[in-house]
Write the structure tokens for this entry.
Amino acid sequence: MASTIEGNTRPIRLADIAKAAGVSHGTASNVFSRPEIVREEVRERVKAAAEAMGYAGPDPKGRLLRAGKVNAIGVATTEPLSYFFEDPFARAMMAGISEACDATGAGIALVSAGNQEKLAWNIQSALVDGFILFCIEGGSRLVELTRERKLPFVALELGFDDDTVSAIGVDNVAGARLAAQHLAELGHRRFAVLALPFADGSTGLVSPEKVRTALYTGTRDRLVGYFEAFSRYGVDTAGIPVYETVNDEASTRAGLETIFASAAPPTAILAMSDRIAMVAIEWLTARGIAVPGDVSVIGFDGVPDAALCDPPLTTVAQPIAEIGRRAARTILDFDGTVRRETLGVELVVRGSSGPPPKTA
Amino acid sequence: MASTIEGNTRPIRLADIAKAAGVSHGTASNVFSRPEIVREEVRERVKAAAEAMGYAGPDPKGRLLRAGKVNAIGVATTEPLSYFFEDPFARAMMAGISEACDATGAGIALVSAGNQEKLAWNIQSALVDGFILFCIEGGSRLVELTRERKLPFVALELGFDDDTVSAIGVDNVAGARLAAQHLAELGHRRFAVLALPFADGSTGLVSPEKVRTALYTGTRDRLVGYFEAFSRYGVDTAGIPVYETVNDEASTRAGLETIFASAAPPTAILAMSDRIAMVAIEWLTARGIAVPGDVSVIGFDGVPDAALCDPPLTTVAQPIAEIGRRAARTILDFDGTVRRETLGVELVVRGSSGPPPKTA
DNA sequence: CGTTAAGCTTGGATCGATTCAAAAATACTC
DNA sequence: GAGTATTTTTGAATCGATCCAAGCTTAACG
């Protein structure tokens, strides 16, 4: 009760307890951190003194400096903090991370910020043992910022071709191939791609140059996978519109407007995320275009929500939680080496894909 | 590059670069924390030395000890960490908390643990300036644990009658009254209540004694609200079954089994959470009982998902995000006083409630 | 009773920074 | 050029603990 209330007395330190109990601070410390090596009588005396003075136990701030380990991992993104609780992909990932952290008793610190400057500061000053980076937009900046900190970190999602950074991702080429193949086998021949960002801050129809110089290799790889499969089915990939979105509703809708303004609109849409795919389904349905009757839609990610939308989304499922678990483990068991893992993906066929309309 | 790689050299400290640059560590510190007060030439020299030695900037661990402020708030619960990303109520709350934290640049540390012992330790050792407590099950334990820590904290959701702890919640009596009144006005006269926990670790039909001695006053208040409204409409409250759940699927289903085993089953169900209500709708629908045709269901909370289920849930909406924002502000602007806030709620009528069947 | 082993305690060193009063350097005034 | 004002820099003190080598007790044994 009295610990902080009586005037401006500064908070009680371990040293104060030691003095009150008539032991050295070393012994007092032992009472709390290794009670078994302190004689019972002394231990009781110290504990009684602590109780009497309202001492809550060693302050983690002090302990931290000595121990050097925070026992928490930071999860950083350039999106606002609420992203972690609202975006389905992020949530599934966080569930995996949480699991690994729970298992070892580690905590999670969420790092983000309204503006770039604050983000830099927050990354500089986060009390964590390492970082997991959600590389959405501005991913490369995030990596640079974090590298500065000289703590272990692992990048998620977008593969940076930089082999010096640990990263965990999926086989984007294979996944995309699966998606395209599925549609081609259903009989589709006219496609459109709603892509994730190739580079920071642009949207719109994408030129082959842009693809070659893509900053985000994950996006490029998915496109490569789509095109590989198409080639095998004799589809002319040159005619396929590829529209770059920023994985949000507005840019996706803009992409759809553009794509369906064409004289020969596609009968199948390849979306590089479930988010995009679900917006597409909504947009199409609202226009009276039947899914999958008139147009099939296939996503990428395999977020839980995809199973619940109407029609349920056919998609390429990543082992999202597993990625999260591995990312957390990479930080928790950090051994100084760069670790790059690529996990497999799985085609999940649901209701949003079917044969093309006969009339087409 | 070389900072950590060359053998076992211990990491570079601020003092090292001070020596290298030929200035005192005081000056070196100023270069980073108050660059404007050091002469440009010196500043450049120190920065160059830092760069050359691969010094990433002052270690937050050291800074922390001196500054005393972590600039992060802890959010604690007895549930596993994944709760924060999966439960709709928690997510909506976290979104509000995130917003307030983003605005001031504060971080969020999630605190939880697999078992009770670890939880105690994690709360003891979390590096935070204060706690927001998600008081679900075991709420009182969580409060005790946190009180030990002697940091500011605020309890969410369940009102503890303990006036010494800050808490933010809603007017449960008024909200419950709204719910019951709505059903009564639709013409219902036979009700059942699916309640939240009254005390730790029990489920089943609830006796009046139990209600009187309820540990969770929030649960009790909602019941009081229901009954108040019923009395006003001349409904005999003695005959209303009140089944205590632990806000999960299993206990809710068990409650429904019990309730509908009756000879005169209710025509309306009052659920104390949207979670319970949604499970109820699913259970009823699966039994071929029409909602709201045969039985009306009303929830409590107003989570976003409630608008999306089929039929959309009629419920009493709490200003969840606002509660989160205020809780965060309470910690961030802590002034040493106990703050207890009660916010208003709102009846949201959707598709799950309607007049009772004619035949009943 | 002296010796040895084992168990406890001690207090200085350390973790990595920030702060602030005082000293030093520089600039300015007459 | 002395005197004063101003800007910079210094270095000791501090934040709150943990660690560990060395010293001290105590118990046991011959």
